[in-house]
User: Which sequence fits this backbone?
């Protein structure tokens, strides 16, 4: 080509050679090379659950409305317990009081019968008076009889106040007592004092008080019935 230097033509016409890097071996090719270290057997890995765990909801805190609704139950329970305790205490107190009352009446009724028995023994005491101290014996026996009479009068009034039935039974007993035992006492005063040991045995023919047995039984039965009625509960009387 005219006008262009040859050296320029050589530069233009010379092909450009690009350096290409040698190909890199792939992973599969590398794995194909046997390894000198033995490979351990594979261990099965347990499967991990992918289920989502939802935490439980905590209980809700009590509100003011809940607390207000609980108070009536608590108050009613406390009131019921207090009422039950009071009822039991009242019942126990009434039972104890009733037992004490029955014991007191039993003693009082026995003392009334003891006064009757003391009057009943006076005819025997008069017959067995000392023969060597007639004046002193009259005073002693008279004072004893006066005290017994006072006890009889007291128990006559008391039994009528305590129980009408018992009072009537005791009044009948004392009336017959004064009649029967009083006659025996008059006869004993008229008889001579006993001066021997054998005379101390007084036969029933001399002092007969058998008429009192029926009335004594009636009085005891009236007392027993009165005490039995007191042992019943107050609501069944």
Assistant:
């Amino acid at each position: 080509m005219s006008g262009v230097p040859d050296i320029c033509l050589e530069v233009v016409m010379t092909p450009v050679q690009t350096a290409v890097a040698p190909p890199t071996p792939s992973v599969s090719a590398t794995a194909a090379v046997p390894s000198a270290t033995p490979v351990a057997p594979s261990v099965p890995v347990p499967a991990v659950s992918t289920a989502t765990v939802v935490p439980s909801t905590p209980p809700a805190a009590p509100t003011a409305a809940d607390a207000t609704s609980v108070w009536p139950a608590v108050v009613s329970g406390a009131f019921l317990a207090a009422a039950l305790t009071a009822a039991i205490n009242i019942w126990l107190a009434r039972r104890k009081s009733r037992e004490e009352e029955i014991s007191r009446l039993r003693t009082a009724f026995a003392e009334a019968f003891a006064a009757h028995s003391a009057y009943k023994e006076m005819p025997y005491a008069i017959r067995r008076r000392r023969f060597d101290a007639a004046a002193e014996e009259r005073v002693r026996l008279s004072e004893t009889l006066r005290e017994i009479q006072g006890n009889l009068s007291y128990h006559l009034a008391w039994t009528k106040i305590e129980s009408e039935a018992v009072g009537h039974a005791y009044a009948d007993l004392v009336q017959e007592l004064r009649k029967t035992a009083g006659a025996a006492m008059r006869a004993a005063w008229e008889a001579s004092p006993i001066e021997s040991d054998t005379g101390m045995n007084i036969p029933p023919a001399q002092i007969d008080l058998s008429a009192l047995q029926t009335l004594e039984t009636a009085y005891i039965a009236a007392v027993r019935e009165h005490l039995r009625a007191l042992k019943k509960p107050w609501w069944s009387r």
Q: What stands out?
A: Residues 169 and 219 are 5 Å apart (CA to CA).
